[in-house]
Each structure stands twice: as C-alpha cells, then as structure tokens.
Amino acid sequence: MLDLFTGTGIAHSIMLFAAVIGIGLYLGRFKIKGVSIGSTWILFVGILLSHFGLRANPTVLAFVKDFGLILFVFSIGLQVGPGFFHSFKKGGVLMNGLAVTLVLLAVLITYIIHLVTGESLATMTGVMSGAVTNTPGLGAAQQTLQDAMVATGSTADAAGSASAGLASAYAVAYPIGVLGVIFLIILFKGVLKVDLAKEKDQLDHEGDSGENARRMHCEVENPALFGRSLKDIVGDMSGKFVVSRIIHEGEVLIPGPDTILEKGDKVLVVTSQQNVDAVRIVFGEEIQMHQTDWFKLDEHLVTRRLTITRSDLTGKRLSNLGIRHNYNVSVTRVIRAGVELVARPNLVLQMGDGLQVVGTEENIEGVAAVVGNKPENLSKPNLVPIFFGIAIGVIFGSLPIRFPGIPQPVKLGLAGGPLIIAILLGYFGPKWKITTYTTTSANMMIREIGISLFMAAVGVGAGENFVSSILGGGYWWILYGALITLVPVATIFLVARLVFKLNFYQICGLISGGTTDPAVLAFAQGMYGTDYTSVNYATVYPLTMFMRVLMAQLLILISL
Fold it and tell me: Tell me: the pLDDT tens digits for 2-47?
C-alpha cells in the first residue's frame, strides 16, 4: 500500500495525475481581481508535487503528455475544420506571416542573449523551447545534439548529460512561457480598452455577411416573369435563392419547378445577403410582411426543423433527397453548427444538420422518415473516424522532411500531424461520406481531458529538477526566458492590433498558435467565453510548429 504513494508504478502514476488535475482544476475556479489562469494551475500543482518527491513512471509520463496533446489538438481540428479554408482565404496569409515573424523574433532574441551573455547556444535553445512552450522543438533539439555529439566522438553518457541540460533549461523557462503570454493578453486587454462584446459582435457580423440565410418578401412586378414557370425564371441563378412559398389569388402554395408566376403574386424567398439585390431585380422590391402572415392564410402549412441523423446521408447533396418533388415540402434553410445556410440544391449535407421545412404535417412526416430526425441518435459517440484520424495523424507527423545542409530531418510531430489530419477530416469528411459529427459537449470533453493530461504531465516532468536548476544558476534562465516570451509576443500583439486592426479574439488565437501554447488557448477560451480563437489557433499552428522545430535544430547545429 505504501508503494502506491511512494513508488513509480502504473497505479501510483494514475493516482498522481488524477490528483494533480483535480487540485489544479479546483484552484482554477478562484479569481484574483476577476482574473483566473484556469486549468494552467494544473501545471504548477504538478511541479509542486513532483518537487516534493511524487514522480510518475517515465514511460507513462511520456505517453500521457503526448496523448493528451493529441486529444486536445485533434478535437480543435475537428471543430474548426469545416470553416478552416474559408478562414484561411480571408486572413490566413496575414496570420501565418505574423506567426512566422513571431518565431523569427524569438530566435533573434535567443541568439542576441547568447552573444551578450556568453551563455551556451545549446542551453539557450532549451530556454527558447520552454519560453515558447514548444515540446517538439525541445525533442528535436535534444535528438540533434545527441546525434551530433556521438558522431563527433563523444560518449553516449556525455551526449545524454548535454541533452538533460536542455530539458532543465526548458523546465525553468516553461512556466514563464505560459504565464507571460497570459499576462500580456490581460494587460493589453486593459490598456487597449478592449470591449469583448463589441469584438464578438464584429466577428458574428463578419460570419453573417456572405452565406447566412435571409428571408425576403417580394411582390412579382417584373413583366418578364408573368406567365413563366419557376424553373425558367431561376435559370442561371439556381442555388442562389430558394422560393419557399407563393401567394397566388389569396392561396398559399408550396411552389414546384412548374409553378407559374403572375403579376401581383407574393413570394417568400430565402437567400444570402450577397444575393439580396439580385433577388430584388428578378422579382421586385420587398414588401412589408411577416412570416406569420403566411400561416394565417393557410392553417394547413406548418414549419418544422428536422435533424439529419442518418449517417448514410453524409456527403449527399440536398437535391439528391428529392424533398420538394416527392413530398411537396419546401426546405428553406439548413442549420449547421448554429449557422443558418441557404438551402441550395448542391449543398453537401452532413450528419447533425437541421433542415427548416415548410409543408403539411403529413408530408413533413414523410420527409422526417427520410432524414431520420432522431436527435437521440446524435448523442452516441462516433469514435471510428476519431481514432483512425489520430492513427493517420501520428503517421503523417512522423514523416521526415529533409532540407539540404541539415543532417536531421524535420517532423511535424505528434501534435502537428494529428491537427492537420483533423482539419482535413472536418472539412472533407462529409464530401468523402465520412461521418465526423460529434456533439459540442463531446468535443469539449475530449478537449478538456486532453489539455489537462498534457499540462499535468509537463508539470510532473519539470518539477524534479526545477528548484535545483534555478539555484544552480538557472535563475538567469528565467530572465532570458521572459525576454524571449514577452518581447516577440508584445511586438506582434501591438502590430496586429494597431497596424492590421485585427480583432482581439483573432489575436488571442494568433498568439496561442504562434507560441504553440495550448494552455494559453484554453485560458482565452475559458476566460473570454468564445471559440473564435480556435480557428486562428489552428490556422497558424501547423506552420508555426514546423518553424519552431526547424529553428531549434538550426540553433543546435550552429552551436556545434
């Protein structure tokens, strides 16, 4: 029984991680002057308990750290995947440019400190990896150093000792890397007088500007339409709007392709904001009506929202279901992740989508049978694509990428690989008929478990030599790490805000992704209550991870 508390067995390690996470999350509930660092407490509880002799099995420690990080980034990738490429087109080049600049500034400051103080460049590489919280960069630097030393005749023990020195420098600088960025976010939020509600509203409106659904009530005034069928009128504008209902001679109709329009008919059109002017030109000016006015004229018509719960419909186009032709029911909108989209015929459906339909109760029941409409089925976890995705991501992250003149290949690692595969699955999954749907609560559960395991493992691993490294002269590493953390982040934050006028939430995602710091992302999401930061985090993370790993190896090679 005593070995459970003092040993390093599997049971002891599990108990230790559970205690570290439990205590850390409990402390994260408390705020000082309205500010809490949330789950970042897990890191410091792990350091404290490890310092006082509670250690985890090394193999278990390595597994928990890597697997926790994989779970965290994979859940982020699945969440942001559907909108990732749209976001990248809108601002991804700028975001990645700023992120690369952030990386290069950290490298420049690291090299300047080496020149000014005479501190070993290899040691400074460890400090830099901790200051930017980049564990894969540390691993790449250690491997490069060991291989290079052995190749030049050094003993394996000497190479291992040098590698351990990098880890000590990393452990000392790591807490500054986390707390320093959080401190700057809080500081700039106050100094720049950021209005969070206004910032969120700005991003909400940006999302509404193009694709989101909008209702229009128009009266047919265009003489070119009189006596023509709806399919002839739509023509080249097919997919740009949906005619939901028509009032003809006082009767409400669910229109079909052969429905004839006459002068004075009233139409209820669902379109996107970008096509509003085109709809006015085709039909006529908008008139004052309310949606309820349509139901007063025909009490037999009802509006319902049906949910796609059949996985075999993932990847099918809306037109493939033949809803209007077979059931005389109109699909006016598709609701996906809380966003209302125009029900275009070529819209690719996925499990979990909601269909806003109009028709008689009897006909709508027929459509419900086609799409499933059993929301309880969505609560069942769909784990197959998640674990297959992780497996492919690990393989992808382990592929060596070689550069001329660099003896060691660069890899995206166990975080970069799964993140990229998750983004691709989230975006292309429905098109490839792969069901990637997970409920928001399930995604959040995976994400929180992942980041908690990761920070607990980092804390427990760093605590053993934390104090001794500081007392042995490593206190200077704290200062060096602070400079490497604060100067580049502060510079990029101000440039992004004052020069490029980026949104506060975008900058939080940029900074957390640019420092490859999931703890900062978790803080920003928990503190400011939005997932907008995740999109920008995922936008810059892959390239940033690649650059961090590459730069760490280059610094080691320069130091030899």
Answer: 566 666 778 888 899 999 999 998 988 877 655 566 677 887 888 8
pLDDT in tens, 305-349: 999 888 788 778 888 888 887 888 888 888 876 667 778 888 888
Name the phi and psi angles at 188, rounded to 5: -70, -30
Name residues whose C-beta falls within 8 Å of residue 115's C-beta, 6 or more positions apart in sequence: none
Cα angle: 132, vertex 465, 61; to 5 degrees = 75
- Per the CB < 8 A criterion, the answer to whether 347 and 241 are in contact is no
CATH 3.50.30.70 fits 209-377, yes or no: no
Domain ranges across the chain: 2-205+380-559, 209-377
In order of 213, 329, 428, 560, the CA distances from 339 in angstroms are: 8, 22, 19, 55
Q: Which of 362, 212, 334, 195 minimizes the C-alpha distance to 272?
A: 212
Phi, psi (degrees; rounded to nearest 5) at 158:
-65, -40
pLDDT per residue as tens digits for the range 52-102:
888 888 888 888 888 887 888 788 778 767 666 765 666 678 998 999 999
Alpha carbon separation from 330 to 275, 319, 348, 375, 423 (Å, rounded) = 20, 12, 17, 21, 33
415's tokens: 């975080």
Euclidean distance between the first and final Cα of the chain, in Å?
Answer: 49
